[in-house]
Amino acid sequence: MSTAIPTRDLPAIQQGEADDRIGLRAGLRHTGALVRRNLLWIKKDPESMFDAVLMPVVFTLLFVYVFGGAIGHSLGGGHHQYVQYVIPGMLAMMSMTIAQGVGTGFNEDFHNGIMDRFRTMPIGRSSVLIAKISVELLRMLVATTILMIVAALVGFEFTNWAGLFAAVGLAVLFGSAMMWIFLVLGVTLKNAQSVQAMGFLVMMPLQFGSSIFAPTRSMSGWLRTFTAYNPMSGLADAARGLMIGGPIAHGLVVTLAWSAGLTLLMAPIAIHRFTTKS
Amino acid sequence: MPTSRAPASGALAVKVRGLIKHYGPTTALDGVDLDVRPGAVLGVLGPNGAGKTTLVRVLSTLVRPDAGTAYVAGCDVLRQPRQLRRTIGLTGQYASVDEKLSGIENLYMIGRLLDLSRPDARRRASELLERFSLTEAAQRTAGTYSGGMRRRLDLAASLIGRPAVLYLDEPTTGLDPRTRKEVRRMVGEGVTVLLTTQYMEEAEQLASELAVIDRGKIIARGGVSELKAKVGRRTLRIRPADPLHLSSLATELDAAGLTGLAATAFDRETGTVVVPVQSDEQLTALVGTLAAHGVALADITTELPTLDEVFLSVTGHRTGISQDAAPAHQEVAA
To answer: Which of A185, A196, B44, B155 could form a disulfide with B196 if both were Cys (CB 3.0 to 4.6 A apart)?
Structure first.
């Protein structure tokens, strides 16, 4: 029929010898092969990009045209002023919403058995996680690009390009830190629906209890304290400062602190759960 | 740094000592000891929940045991998991392939993950696709494959890295005759195979040696025929030259007190008397009685019990599904 597999001798007994280490080059190659896998998914199932492509469009139009007039009026301007206000907020929202997708996809991998195969292969287990995160970051960039196109169409004034790129960088950084939470959910919870439901429970209060869509001035005292340290407010405020001018420092500090804290806390948990899940 | 604590695993492909694994109140493995020689095809036979899958998951580094030691190809499951993973291939109960990728994309990805160069990964992928008759389906998404095709792709994926030890966990699901043949062919190629099954027929067809596992313990071990012989129960089938002598033959045997332990049966269709024999002495006595009475015989055979019967006698309970596997025939020299 075809070529036979040559006999493979058993390796010599190496009792007590230290275990293999996976080098950086091999690690990058493994991650590359797994990134390719996730990109092939998108190629075969372009619908999986719908959320990244359509969400910025739908949410931007919804907020600008439904609430834009009213909130813009309270900002002392109108519809046009609200566009300037909400686009940096949308950038913040997008980073978290896209990050959430990583959990469900990860959960599915555990169900169809492919994760067992990966975990019995001589590859660094972090490669699987990093590949997943890389592809989600790519989706985030696609969503961001589309958001900026929509922003231009609804009249956002791009005045500070360096600021824009800095804001996008900050959003991507925060989004990748958020992914660790969703990865933990993805490894821990039984099925993809629970992962999605829990994801929404995490996201909703953070997104709406923030300065993403409207200024927090009119909120009650305790809620204002919450929003002041809510990373979504921090990211939205910092992005706003960077893109249209205004205070940056507080938002930047809050965002960076959250990003670092989440990564330091959640990444080890995610990696541990992933490694020991049986 | 060699440590004196580690037991030498000699030339064994798999060496397991005192393996214990609890899942809450459930004891999945209750002190498993197991040796597998290189190149052997060992069938681990047992009913659902006997601990077969847990054993395979420990030996493939997916589950940490609570106690005990396990070496695969000389690597310690607990202390050298990465090195161990270079020597094994696993085909689990659920086909571990990416259903969204095509056959060739799956195998290419595995090749790249196993550090093959791009051209080598492509070459190895098409080689294995051909070997498992999947060349025509190579470009199709694995999700559209039939159960048997998916199983073959899964097996091909497990073989990309030329493993020294291959685990097949319940390969029955979708293991078609062609794939079985492939599995058997690997036997001659130095690959050590550890397969788990709850089906007698499958174990008989694929394995050269058997270990019977029940409630987390290995309760019997040996070659297929050895294990059957261990049960010590054989069935003697006597066909008299003249079918009319059937009933008189049975009467004579009964009169000689040789069939007391189990009922003698006629099989009019084949014209034979079926006598369950308990021991070699009984067999000798029986043949002697026949000779003394001058019964003309056309044929006399002994049959080994089926594995299903073996299982019943060592565990005291039946396996899930009994198979009507053709029993092995042995001519008795007259």
So the answer is: B44
Q: Tell me the average pLDDT across B4-24.
A: 75
B24 touches chain A (CB under 8 A): no
Quickly list H helices, B160-256.
Answer: 177-187, 200-206, 224-230, 246-255
Nearest residue on chain B to A36, judged by CA atoms? B109
Lowest-confidence pick of A228-232, A242-246, B111-115, B291-295? B291-295
Rg (CA), chain A: 22
- Buried b or exposed e, range A81-118, using 16+ CB within 10 angstroms: bbbbbbbbbbbbbbbbbbbbbbbbbbbbbbebbbbbbb
Task: Please calculate the CA angle B92-B93-B98 and round it to the nearest 5 degrees.
Answer: 65
Nearest CA to A211 among A189, A239, A185?
A239
**Structure-block tokens of residue A201:** 């429970």
Question: What's the DSSP call for residue B71?
Answer: E
Rounded CA separation B69/B55 (Å): 12
Phi, psi of A229 (to 5 degrees): -110, 5
Find the radius of gyration of the CA atoms of chain B.
24
- Please, is A271 exposed, middle or buried when counting C-beta atoms within 10 Å of its C-beta (0-12, 13-18, 19+)? middle
CB B7 within 8 A of CB B69: yes
Rounded Cα gap, residues A120 and B118, in angstroms: 21
What does the alpha-carbon distance between residue A120 and residue A141 come to, in Å, rounded to a whole number?
Answer: 33
Among B31, B34, B36, B33, smallest CA distance to B21 is for B31
Residues 6+ apart with CB under 8 A from B332: B236, B283, B287, B300, B301, B302
Give the one of A8, A37, A122 whose C-beta lies nearest to B162's C-beta: A8
Q: What does the pLDDT look like over B65-98, one tens digit per residue?
A: 999 999 999 899 999 988 999 999 998 777 689 9
The per-residue pLDDT for B56 is 94
Q: Which residues of B touch A22 (CB under 8 A)?
A: 82
Which residues on neighbouring strands pair with residue B220, listed in sequence order? B212
A204 pLDDT more than 50: yes
Q: What is the ipTM for the molecules in this complex?
A: 0.80
